Amino acid sequence: MALSDLTLAECWAYRPDLVVPEDLDAFWERTLRVDAPVEATYEPVDTGLTQIRTWSVTVAGYGGEQVHGWLHLPTNATGPLPCVVEYLGYGRGRGLPHEKLFWASAGFAHLIMDSRGQGWSAAPGDTADPHRYPAGTVPGFLTRGVTSPEDFYYRRLITDAVRFAQAAREHPAVDPDRVVVTGISQGGGLSLAVAALSPGVAAAMPDVPFLCDFPRAVQVAGQGPYGEVAEYLALYRGQSSQVFRTLSYVDAAVLAPGATAPALFSIAMMDATCPPSTCFAAYHRYGGDKEVRVYEFNDHEGGEAHHQLEQLAWLHKLFGR
Amino acid sequence: MALSDLTLAECWAYRPDLVVPEDLDAFWERTLRVDAPVEATYEPVDTGLTQIRTWSVTVAGYGGEQVHGWLHLPTNATGPLPCVVEYLGYGRGRGLPHEKLFWASAGFAHLIMDSRGQGWSAAPGDTADPHRYPAGTVPGFLTRGVTSPEDFYYRRLITDAVRFAQAAREHPAVDPDRVVVTGISQGGGLSLAVAALSPGVAAAMPDVPFLCDFPRAVQVAGQGPYGEVAEYLALYRGQSSQVFRTLSYVDAAVLAPGATAPALFSIAMMDATCPPSTCFAAYHRYGGDKEVRVYEFNDHEGGEAHHQLEQLAWLHKLFGR
Amino acid sequence: MALSDLTLAECWAYRPDLVVPEDLDAFWERTLRVDAPVEATYEPVDTGLTQIRTWSVTVAGYGGEQVHGWLHLPTNATGPLPCVVEYLGYGRGRGLPHEKLFWASAGFAHLIMDSRGQGWSAAPGDTADPHRYPAGTVPGFLTRGVTSPEDFYYRRLITDAVRFAQAAREHPAVDPDRVVVTGISQGGGLSLAVAALSPGVAAAMPDVPFLCDFPRAVQVAGQGPYGEVAEYLALYRGQSSQVFRTLSYVDAAVLAPGATAPALFSIAMMDATCPPSTCFAAYHRYGGDKEVRVYEFNDHEGGEAHHQLEQLAWLHKLFGR
Amino acid sequence: MALSDLTLAECWAYRPDLVVPEDLDAFWERTLRVDAPVEATYEPVDTGLTQIRTWSVTVAGYGGEQVHGWLHLPTNATGPLPCVVEYLGYGRGRGLPHEKLFWASAGFAHLIMDSRGQGWSAAPGDTADPHRYPAGTVPGFLTRGVTSPEDFYYRRLITDAVRFAQAAREHPAVDPDRVVVTGISQGGGLSLAVAALSPGVAAAMPDVPFLCDFPRAVQVAGQGPYGEVAEYLALYRGQSSQVFRTLSYVDAAVLAPGATAPALFSIAMMDATCPPSTCFAAYHRYGGDKEVRVYEFNDHEGGEAHHQLEQLAWLHKLFGR
Amino acid sequence: MALSDLTLAECWAYRPDLVVPEDLDAFWERTLRVDAPVEATYEPVDTGLTQIRTWSVTVAGYGGEQVHGWLHLPTNATGPLPCVVEYLGYGRGRGLPHEKLFWASAGFAHLIMDSRGQGWSAAPGDTADPHRYPAGTVPGFLTRGVTSPEDFYYRRLITDAVRFAQAAREHPAVDPDRVVVTGISQGGGLSLAVAALSPGVAAAMPDVPFLCDFPRAVQVAGQGPYGEVAEYLALYRGQSSQVFRTLSYVDAAVLAPGATAPALFSIAMMDATCPPSTCFAAYHRYGGDKEVRVYEFNDHEGGEAHHQLEQLAWLHKLFGR
Amino acid sequence: MALSDLTLAECWAYRPDLVVPEDLDAFWERTLRVDAPVEATYEPVDTGLTQIRTWSVTVAGYGGEQVHGWLHLPTNATGPLPCVVEYLGYGRGRGLPHEKLFWASAGFAHLIMDSRGQGWSAAPGDTADPHRYPAGTVPGFLTRGVTSPEDFYYRRLITDAVRFAQAAREHPAVDPDRVVVTGISQGGGLSLAVAALSPGVAAAMPDVPFLCDFPRAVQVAGQGPYGEVAEYLALYRGQSSQVFRTLSYVDAAVLAPGATAPALFSIAMMDATCPPSTCFAAYHRYGGDKEVRVYEFNDHEGGEAHHQLEQLAWLHKLFGR
């Protein structure tokens, strides 16, 4: 393992000129302005666990389509709880209900959102993406509808994410002023987007975020899903400006200035999937108070269990324990 | 490169017990019984070529959905022509109109079918698959809807293929008694399925066919798309019998006994993508007269340009030159 | 991914003639006959978790040397609890205290043993192996002292494991009649060894066990730590019989007939690290009642979260819920 | 896939100081000054094609040695035709006569030159290189005789290429004022050399050209035949200046200023075989009018079928359609 | 590392039916019947060594062409010495004169033959192969002229080897009754061929021999030069019987019954370059007394320095120390 | 193969600011100040060689622990000889006694030191490292005790090396004023350390030295043992400054200014294991007269046999032949 992107000093200095679409705000306002409620339903699940109670969640996401998830609450908890809303890494579905026990074990409400259409290799998913599958999609999600911001997959996924954050704030066991969004990789990118588009969020904790600074990421990332864009453009020669225009609408580094909540980032310097420079691009542009934990010798796994403790301590400090 | 499957002698002796669903015929009859015409339309294309004239084709495929393709005719050809209907390898779209010039240069009508939703890495595609994208699909097409024969992607693709063969027979420049189906890999598997399901086809020329003998293929194939099924079952543990039941409806080795047209197969002994034993399973069960060219030292590329000449000679003999 | 070992049918029939050292029982009696108590100490740890209480454990292991671990108890639990004693996979240390929350969340006491000297790549460790490092050791543990059963690393590790099981039985919160040993890979091999050498264990749940049927494993395993033995013998030519003799003393398939507790195995058919035939060798020879869950399309990850539920259900049935 | 060479902006600015041997012109004048005619012979071939007529060609190449090729003419063509002379990529032989049908299908004469001694992996060859095989050659052609410009393989191959261009101009069906040289990779380097050394050529269309800017290419290319030089110098330490001196005589970037015909280049920015900076070195130094199509997300495959259309349009514009 | 060929028990039983060409003896008699002397010349070399004296050797090889080598004699040796004639592994040239010091340090004359045309990657060479380079040769030597026994490269190399053994017997410092041939891989195959074709040799010591049992080797070898034949036949489809006929003339397993001198083989069971079954094919058919050292856990490196001591002890026993 | 570090021009300019621990001299003085003699013993070995006599050596190394080696003397040598003390590359043990014959064949005494605990893959070892094995060590030696300079493995290994150089000077057959230290990779790093810490050494010949400029090496090296440090820090997050502090005590580039003997370096520009910039860091800081041979196209193998001749010539010049 070795550095494959900028050094740490270069990352601190890296400030790319990202193109912000003129109608960015209008695009998202139009997409998110929905009077319909999130229609969250909660079905109890028997996981066999005694210390944590779990519900299968359904929320009306983009287009009113059903998006699933899990809600964990600590057994015997009383009073409104702070809530961690977690978005998942690329490819991962919500998995089995007993897979992620940290936040509820620590006394938090924990809401996990399934990523529509995803759910292979790492964890099963349960949410379909009921939209036509365009020709030319590179297997995966990063080029699904990439020729138009309207049809692009990530428009739908970000909308789902905003609505899950809203569902969390409306849940009776949750304190609506202490809803935090977090996630690793794709989940980190979604956290940033929600922090920018959803004013009621109390904090964001994006880890090794994906979906940042596409123009550089597609040229630099030596592995992982950014390569889907390169593979697409290798075949569909001449669509480059159209594709990067679409991507700019969902680019978390483009959206980041709109955020105001405090944020704790983590970035890994030997990350070949989400190159550190692209994560720093989002960090530098982030609109709220911010801190970053840099993991100098890690690849895309980042801070793992070590960073969970950083997050827990940071939240305890933010909210008062 | 080395053998990674059975030896040639073992392949000649390999006769697997494939499970044939009781309602196989009913399933396909129900699927294909459509009174609606194929509604083929032909739009001329300016390719810049002088020796071949080309049309962009649209056919009403499964569910009446538009499926595209190309039709090439030799310039100055007169009278009804024999026609080669070609289905494409996995991942490939119909490409640019001037990419495949062999059959028209040899005096044949040549009809190429786009594979719905496909079209990456090797050649662009233009045909969407306007169906919901279920959760849990391994990127690619082999597990899209694999939990049910009704929803499975290959049900739709095989139906498209049958209807393209029918469109060929109805084209005024084509001699309906000399319509041949062919293709490499996925195209080979589709050729076998069409030969089995579409009585009017005059001959089939499947090359290193995919979609054959799934139960063995999924365990043996060291690379390529069969691995999508293994990856799916690795995560969705316990769905094995359900998945293999779905696959049996589109397994070209299961369908092969229903074919009656003469066939020229090609099989490669060092093929790690479509293991030779699985191709021989289809060959042995094929219902019509048959020959096979075995390429002992080739991987999945098979006979390439060399085999094109074998096919041309075989067709000239079959039809009289 | 593809099969790289025997098929499932062949595995059911595979019964190797394993050489059992004449003094096997005497060797282990001599090794384990220690009058000294296990001297377990328990130091509370502040993990930040509210639903689970955790202690850092120290047990006097082989040679009275301090071996560390974690003990998790469900908060508010009362009365003696069933206890799951977990041994770790190769290379992994006990990690951070909040990494494994499943069993305590499910109402069990959960005792995790650090593996002496290990703790890299996947999870940190805290236990030294205070013994001389012989020349010629292939980096790793599988050849450390392999020229003599007395000096071999796994003699020490198995002894540690036996003493952790004993410590569990002696803990005041634990019901000594419901102590279960489990683990994945190396942890699975250790579970088998403890079940064979430690009569008070109530059940064993070995997953994709390592340390089984060395003579075959070293020839067949295409990846993973068995290769350390092959690498050693490639350089130290002529030590083959001496090395396999040492290995036979710690071979879980050799020890397995001595077990009497009921067992739930898991075995993965595409496991290239711990080939399924070698796991079946242990299964077939296992002395107690036994069941096995076979994962046909998994590599060494085996059943993962899916299998945790199988284990929980099996334990609930065994102990009555 | 990612950038592994300079960025596009850096490539536009990259102007290496290439060492031009003092006797470069004399060397090539001496090599090419042959009064003997090219002695082209044309033997008709029955390819089975109806739209294209094909001849097997033999030309007296370097040393009067027989070099083979194919000539394709569109059936029924009348009057002198523009002619595309194509040189082949490294390793490829002329192949079977029906493999390359684009230019003749488009109404051009198409002359393909076999590369002496080559013809493996991609397409068979038929032309021997009847010269002694020196000790120390790294398998392949890039170090065959590399210790002396006189004996170097590429001196012979470039000479063959010049004489094929001359043969095209002398063919009765060809318009001598509309002979174009082209080729991919090695064929692109040969096109540049012929454009520089053969004044009668009407245009050059080099694609992702090989044989350019050896001093940088040997240090930067991560894959492909430039590595043969590195491998040679790794063993024959101390021959570095001698070897690079030889290479400078056939370096297409060194020769490029001598060209006067208009040229259409293609360069791929993620090309790890022929790094884009080395292609730009030739482009910047090229003596005639020039354009370049840059493929930003392609590896060494470059523009493929997409670029064929660019070339056809460019030629139609150049020659008037 | 793992077994990739037959097990040891299977190798002991493996007796392939190799096709022996009817005119095999006549072919070699015609090839080797040369009245001309070997014309060995010996030029002293200043290596800087004090304990060993070295000469650069030239012998008239096949066609009277000059083949080089080294002769080492122990300083201060007196009286006729036993001589080890060593042939080199594939790709390796004679190297620098001080690279191989074992046999002369042990008191033997040591004659090393350069392999014509070879000399890359591992050690430089100095001997050209002054023959035309046919089209279609896969880079390397295994298909150079493979369409005809007369033109095949290995006909020339074996002839060189026979003549070097003769030169050794004629050298004044050498005892002609104690000339031994040896070599690793290609050198092992040549040792077997010389033992079969050159009656005066006192012993043969082939190590992990190449050039044995081509029909199986080409199908089974997962790496190394046998793959050149597979690659050739993958492109030149239909030449299979012609090529294997040529190979049978130089197949060391075909020639082995003709040998009468005692032999010490070494074979490695995890050898993926020269699969053990193919070496055993030669061993079983070898005509003289024979022993074999089997290295069960080695790949193609075989016994290395360990086996040198086995050879030294075996020679001391054979010749009396 | 391609450059993966700085270019040669950049390497000549590269002068890193290395942190020198304040107590560096005190640390080494304390470590090395031992009044006890080296207690070298020499046991004759029967290698079967006639030109070289060999002894198995034992020296009291760090902590008085027995460290083994070989001593070779040219047979019949008289008078005090110059002596080459060789330290070994990472992982390699002293091997069999007849493996390294060059220096004794050239008339030098040759003392080879076993590396404690090492001896796998390339050559067996015979020296144990009788120290506790701390938890968390990445397999290998680079992180063994890396949390403290006192406990770090390389403190012990460097001490052994200093004492072997002293043993050489005390041997009756050796001229104490002509003792040279050398070695490849790890052996090169040890040579530099000994030259800096052991005043009586006459010259140093470090080849592609390891253990140089750790802060850069750990970030840049794409393969090899520097990666152990990166892997350690990836898991033990937050120990970075502590670990690099320990490494600075044994960093050969940190120690190099203390050397006064003349030195001949070799550095390879395509070395991905010991990146050339890190070797140049040591070269630039080296305190004595110095020369360097740069191998521009070699990876970590460096100059090999070619460089042995450079070394021999350099020593002959230094000492007078």
TrEMBL record, chains A, B, C, D, E, F:
Enzyme Commission code: 3.1.1.41
Single Gene Ontology MF annotation: cephalosporin-C deacetylase activity
InterPro entries documented for this protein: AB_hydrolase_fold, AXE1_dom, CE7
Keyword Protein transport set for record: no
This protein's record includes keyword Hydrolase: yes
Active site (catalytic residues): 185 (nucleophile), 271 (charge relay system), 300 (charge relay system)
UniProt keyword terms in alphabetical order: Hydrolase
GO biological process: polysaccharide metabolic process
Enzyme type, top EC level: hydrolase
Span of domain Acetyl xylan esterase: 1-317
Binding site for substrate: 90
Annotated PANTHER family: CEPHALOSPORIN-C DEACETYLASE
Official protein name in the record: Cephalosporin-C deacetylase
Biological source species: Micromonospora jinlongensis
